[in-house]
């Protein structure tokens, strides 16, 4: 099978290049391989065994990550995972309506999230609790969505972290528009770009790449040179569908067709994710956006708590990925390089347990929203029709309480 | 093309099976696929997983990957390729995972699915079924509890139906698939697996026509008309009213476009009062349409205006609040009271 | 960001200008862009070309390419990026080239534009205006003559308005732009350049509120209610009826969501008869909603049912046939006759 | 500016690669160049000067095009152009509501259309009158759409030519579905593929490439190995917007991101279009689809008869493209190689005039559709609600005729 480069200009030949009616075995294998391994083009700074790999291009982007900073990233990931597990457990106990676990994606989320400067903006999908955490969103503020008491409660401007978006792909266009706004506001480039320029990051999954909105986001960002980092967490699955149901090629190569950089990073390598995202954001802040990052990772848990992955994937796969755990490799590295001792790990664990306990406590005591809330904030400027509906319903409710029936 | 397939689910010796709505849909799909090998099922996660609600459970295993397609994640793609497959002679049955995700496919539905037959003066048929789990009451997050059916009923060229019980589920899905027009098939998701609604499905029976509403319960004090998940609410309300000595007539619309309102007119001429019930927001909806037509047809029979019990004109609220949004037995009975006291 | 811009179109010494609807919209857009440099115009061909209807004529020349954006050809992209720009503090005014092409943007409109404010409990505002030339009667090919406004009126979280004359066009577009809610702005395309409708626009006047309907003509025999292009049809009908000695009241809805029906109720209480007129198909439409609400509010005042004169429940026909599809003076008067003879 | 290949893997470097906030001049120039010239990668078999350029890869695909066949292609183009001009004139005379001229795109349409076998299927946009002609659709059958008496009247199955699609991009997904059906029907590949296999071709414009539907069509066709040729006529303009409003890169390169071949052909070269399309269709019939072809051409007339291109483009551009006329180069070639004499050219012209006269005659005598037609064929199986509406309206009409008012 010719390489994609060749495909843009077929080689001379006397007839049809091949005769198979079915996808060639190579095609299938290439697809499969692309989804089970990172492939040769995977950027990695920390191996699953905890070894630091050097990269002429990306090392400068993590030059400031000393032992303390690395311990910080470790702590971030442990806390985020612990909270994720706690939330998952609370769903099982009926305290949450649903939970969308991030297990396995801690490095992709913490690494990319920590690459952002406070003035940068982030547009999440619905699984980015780790990014939320790095944006200073209290994990407890996320719970309302999953306890179904609200559709999103944090301060989006303050945290510069957009509401979760559930309709696959929508946020990619919203992010492209926001990034265009940054550009129109003169916040891209300039002599002091490192200090003043802004960029936007947008999260979406492997499955999302098929949506028209994601394509249009690519088109818009390219045409308007928007300072936008497309951060695709390829966790190998879109619910029950493996990535080869969405694409023949590794997803980072999608960028080729639009004329902006695409790069694949080991999504389980927090250092790699940090470095590549910092690089991408800088490119954007300096006017060379957009950039596509594919973080190659794995959804270690179910799609959501309503999902049963045993119906569609083998546990072998899970076992293989366990060896690539994003947290474990940092722990090994910290220990091996003498950058952290058992006491540190124990402390982080204890802190994580406290963090989870607080979360649990908060969740159990969350107030029920009042019925008026149904009618609140539909509009910024009130609608008389809706006000009448509210009045009627509330007085019905009141009468009802008074035993009308 | 695949050879005719023998289902692994044996038809039991008796032709009666006790089924939930979900299982009845599954069996109905299976029967349709057996009957016509041009019927193919397509959508997100409909294959190995059997759909997030398991409505397509086992179909890919038995009919193969070319007849049950796990598609890429894009609704316009699902509908748009279904159109092409239909032009090629297939009868695609598309699953939209939740009604809130039908909107990326809206353009293909309104511009192609609805109009190709008209555009071509009948030369191109579009026998597509678009299955849409809809409605609330499942404690879900945003976009998973909506009722957008009125939008499709406003678009000429589409047919829209909704089932409320296992017998209808079994037959209507097969009838929709064999219809030569595009059918939006709205399924009451919160009742899919309701054991309480389990009913004996006589698979050897002759079904009612697809595009006909049906009187489920006779009464004379007032008429309740509903479809999908609200039918159960109305039946429960009628039962409760009976205890108070009021007999309510309950009509299951079944077909939302074209509407079959003759039985409603007939009923209102007897009862003089009509309450329409739906989880959808009220403005420019099916309940508006029913009210508009009934006030015209039954102008001299109405003893009170047609009243509507609906979701409010708000987006679907966080589901901890959905009990307030969704029409329930009490709101229906309250409306009956109002109609009777008018 | 661009420095404040002095328009090249000088305000004439007199503050009254004689304008068509199209020119009034153009001037209104210009005023809005002068007043607030966060207002940006975006869409297909809105720049150099000035839009296919020239409504944005000259704006790019005067305000620059960063404020008048010729976007890539994709409606979801137009609306979706407008949402992001709004979150960033801009006030985007999106032009959809013809109403038939709004459907690829339907998902962003219903899932984001309509719901972001509710989702965020008011923390994120979405002050977007989506301008939609709509309606038929221009002898166009398919997809260029439709009336999809009812669909948006069914979606909670959107506001929907339509203008019918130059004075409203001038003011309403500015009011819509300064409103903090998303507004679907339906423009009667066949009247854009109607010289007959040219009217003096007093740019120093205080306009009526945006979300209010208006009685255009007083009468007592029956009430006609319409919006957009149908308003002219109703006014003409009223004039014709007057010659026959019948005085018809005519109400221009102006706001389609939220509906302002108080003036309609008040009128029907006097006339006892209502005819609603719209080019849209009837089923589950705004005319259904008006009928549903009027029959409830004015139950004892109605001497005939609310009648509807609308486009049929068919796709828009080839335009050689559109005279049959579109409500015209005769069909309106025929309905008045029926209402009076009821 | 790095080449797109490099973009998929950025080069090592110590910091951000560039510092410009605006698109680089190179970027702009590249974009502009891409839209005004074909670029180095343009496949061409016949130059604007009528010289035959040889191509090891593509010559075999036109080996059968002898002088007679070439005269046939010439004739096709002349007839199509003549009919196009006649229709344009009839619009000016008020006989048509609108006309969508194809002027300048005759080679792209006739070349690609003639590459199809009868069993292949074509999905047009709204400008493909030349393709319609090659599919055996009588030009007169197209007129109903533009006279607004119908929305499309030919026999789609017989001609294997789908209805015109006006909503930009929709037909690309419809074509992908159709091609999937060909595959499911076993009509792709096999030992006798050349005799029995089928393919589909789908037409769309440069502007259309931005639409989500076109992307999704690419995704679907790639994932299902559909026998589908995406034929993009890049006529440089989407109404008033030049191609650089849609893309940074030449459009044929879009295919790179999906893993199927993309190729640019001189869209004004009927031989080149024939050869490249035949190649692409064969690839598809043999199971190597999809394939993207960008036919680099120019819209010589207005977008439609309602458009005024002087508002947005310079006439210089038009002058440049006149030198690349698709018909003239074939005429010169035929004359120079002694394959046709003046008599032939005169004959073709006379035939074209007759063709146009018939068209005009037909158009002027087209019957008005009856009012019932409004209600006809909304559904395959009748709707009682609609029947009632029809009855009511028709009896109203009848009464009206009887002088009710
Ligand atoms: C438009 C739309 N269609 C369908 C869904 C239902 N759905 C929710 S998540 C999901 C899979 C998403 O996969 P991917 O993009 O890979 O993200 P991941 O969940 O793996 O993070 C689907 C189909 C949706 N939310 N939105
Ligand atoms: C979805 C949609 N949006 C807008 C339009 C209006 N429109 C018709 S043609 C056109 C430009 C198309 O350009 P291109 O794809 O390059 O094709 P060309 O007309 O040049 O052949 C536009 C914007 C449309 N028909 N459909
Ligand atoms: Mg995924
Ligand atoms: Mg073009």
TrEMBL record, chains A, D:
Gene3D superfamilies noted in UniProt: 3.40.50.970
Necessary cofactors: thiamine diphosphate
InterPro entries assigned to the protein according to its UniProt record, in alphabetical order: Alpha-ketoacid_DH_E1_comp (IPR050771), DH_E1 (IPR001017), PdhA/BkdA (IPR017596), THDP-binding (IPR029061)
Domain of life: Bacteria
Matching Pfam families: E1_dh
Skewed-composition ranges (Low complexity): 10-24
Keywords: Oxidoreductase, Pyruvate, Thiamine pyrophosphate
Positions of the UniProt region annotated as Disordered: 1-24
Protein's organism: Prauserella endophytica
Protein name per the record: Pyruvate dehydrogenase (Acetyl-transferring) E1 component subunit alpha
The keyword Hydrolase appears for this protein: no
Residue ranges constituting the Dehydrogenase E1 component domain according to the UniProt record: 75-354
TrEMBL record, chains B, C:
UniProt KW Oxidoreductase keyword: yes
SUPFAM superfamilies according to UniProt: Thiamin diphosphate-binding fold (THDP-binding) (SSF52518), TK C-terminal domain-like (SSF52922)
Taxonomic superkingdom: Bacteria
Keyword set includes Protein biosynthesis: no
Annotated coiled-coil segments of the chain: none
Transketolase-like pyrimidine-binding domain span: 19-194
Keywords, sorted A to Z: Oxidoreductase, Thiamine pyrophosphate
Matching Pfam families: Transket_pyr (PF02779), Transketolase_C (PF02780)
Listed cofactors: thiamine diphosphate
Annotated Gene3D superfamilies: 3.40.50.920, 3.40.50.970
Cross-referenced PANTHER family: PYRUVATE DEHYDROGENASE E1 COMPONENT BETA SUBUNIT, PYRUVATE DEHYDROGENASE E1 COMPONENT SUBUNIT BETA
Protein name according to UniProt: Alpha-ketoacid dehydrogenase subunit beta
Lineage: Bacteria, Bacillati, Actinomycetota, Actinomycetes, Pseudonocardiales
């Amino acid at each position: 099978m010719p390489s994609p480069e060749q495909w843009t200009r077929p080689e001379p030949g006397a007839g049809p290049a091949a005769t198979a009616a079915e996808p060639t075995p190579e095609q299938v294998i290439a697809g499969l391989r692309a989804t089970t391994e990172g492939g040769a083009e995977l950027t990695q700074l920390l191996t699953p065994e905890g070894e630091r790999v050097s990269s002429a291009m990306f090392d400068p982007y993590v030059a400031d990550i000393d032992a303390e900073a690395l311990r910080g990233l470790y702590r971030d990931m442990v806390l985020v995972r612990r909270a994720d597990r706690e939330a998952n457990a609370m769903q099982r106990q009926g305290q949450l309506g649903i939970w969308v676990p991030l297990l396995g994606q801690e490095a992709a989320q913490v690494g990319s999230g920590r690459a952002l400067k406070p003035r940068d903006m982030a547009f999440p999908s619905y699984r980015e609790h780790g990014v939320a955490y790095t944006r200073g969103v209290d994990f407890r503020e996320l719970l309302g969505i999953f306890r179904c008491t609200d559709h999103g409660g944090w301060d989006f401007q303050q945290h510069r972290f957009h509401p979760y978006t559930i309709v696959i792909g929508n946020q990619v266009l919203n992010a492209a528009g926001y990034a265009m706004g940054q550009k129109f506001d003169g916040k891209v480039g300039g002599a002091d770009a490192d200090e003043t320029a802004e960029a936007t990051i947008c999260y979406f999954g492997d499955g999302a790449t098929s949506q028209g909105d994601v394509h249009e986001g690519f088109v818009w960002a390219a045409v308007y040179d928007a300072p936008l980092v497309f951060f695709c967490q390829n966790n190998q699955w879109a619910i029950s569908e493996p990535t080869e149901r969405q694409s023949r090629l590794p997803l980072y190569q999608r960028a080729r067709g639009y004329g902006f950089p695409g790069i694949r990073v080991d999504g389980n390598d927090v250092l790699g994710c940090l470095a590549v995202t910092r690089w991408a954001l800088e490119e954007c802040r300096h006017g060379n956006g957009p950039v596509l990052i594919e973080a190659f990772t794995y959804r270690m848990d179910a799609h959501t708590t309503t999902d049963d992955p045993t119906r569609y994937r083998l546990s072998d796969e899970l076992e293989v990925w366990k060896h690539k755990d994003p947290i474990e490799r940092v722990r090994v590295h910290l220990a091996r390089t003498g950058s952290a001792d058992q006491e540190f790990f124990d402390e982080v664990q204890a802190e994580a347990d406290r963090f989870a306990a607080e979360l649990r406590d908060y969740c159990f005591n969350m107030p029920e929203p009042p019925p008026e809330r149904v009618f609140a904030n539909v509009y910024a400027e009130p609608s008389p029709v809706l006000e009448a509906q509210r009045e009627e319903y509330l007085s019905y409710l009141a009468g009802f309480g008074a035993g009308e029936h | 093309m695949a050879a005719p397939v023998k289902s692994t689910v044996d038809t039991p010796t008796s032709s009666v099976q006790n089924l939930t709505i979900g299982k009845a849909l599954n069996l109905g799909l299976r029967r349709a696929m057996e009957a016509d090998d041009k019927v193919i099922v397509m959508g997100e996660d409909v294959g190995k997983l059997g759909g997030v609600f398991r409505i397509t459970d086992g179909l890919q295993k038995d009919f193969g990957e070319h007849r049950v397609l796990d598609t890429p994640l894009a609704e316009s793609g699902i509908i748009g390729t279904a159109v092409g497959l239909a032009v090629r002679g297939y009868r695609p049955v598309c699953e939209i995972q939740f009604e809130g995700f039908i909107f990326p496919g809206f353009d293909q539905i309104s511009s192609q699915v609805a109009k190709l037959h008209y555009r071509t003066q009948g030369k191109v048929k579009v026998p597509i079924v678009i299955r849409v789990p809809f409605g609330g009451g499942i404690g879900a997050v945003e976009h998973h509890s909506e009722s957008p059916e009125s939008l499709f009923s406003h678009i000429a060229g589409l047919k829209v139906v909704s089932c409320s019980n296992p017998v209808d589920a079994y037959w209507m899905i097969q009838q929709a698939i064999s219809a030569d027009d595009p059918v939006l098939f709205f399924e009451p998701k919160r009742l899919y697996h309701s054991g309480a609604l389990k009913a004996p499905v006589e698979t050897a029976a002759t079904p009612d026509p697809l595009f006909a509403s049906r009187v489920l319960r006779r009464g004379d004090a007032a008429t309740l008309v509903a479809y999908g998940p609200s039918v159960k609410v109305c039946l429960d309300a009628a039962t409760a009213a009976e205890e108070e000595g009021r007999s309510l007539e309950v009509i299951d619309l079944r077909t939302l476009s074209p509407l079959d309102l003759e039985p409603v007119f007939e009923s209102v001429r007897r009862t003089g009062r009509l309450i329409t019930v739906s989880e959808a927001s009220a403005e420019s909806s099916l309940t508006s349409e029913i009210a508009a037509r009934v006030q015209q047809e039954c102008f001299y029979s109405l003893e009170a205006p047609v009243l509507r019990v609906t979701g409010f004109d708000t987006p679907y609220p966080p589901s901890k609040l959905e009990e307030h949004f969704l029409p329930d037995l009490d709101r229906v009975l309250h409306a009956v009271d109002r109609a009777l006291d008018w």
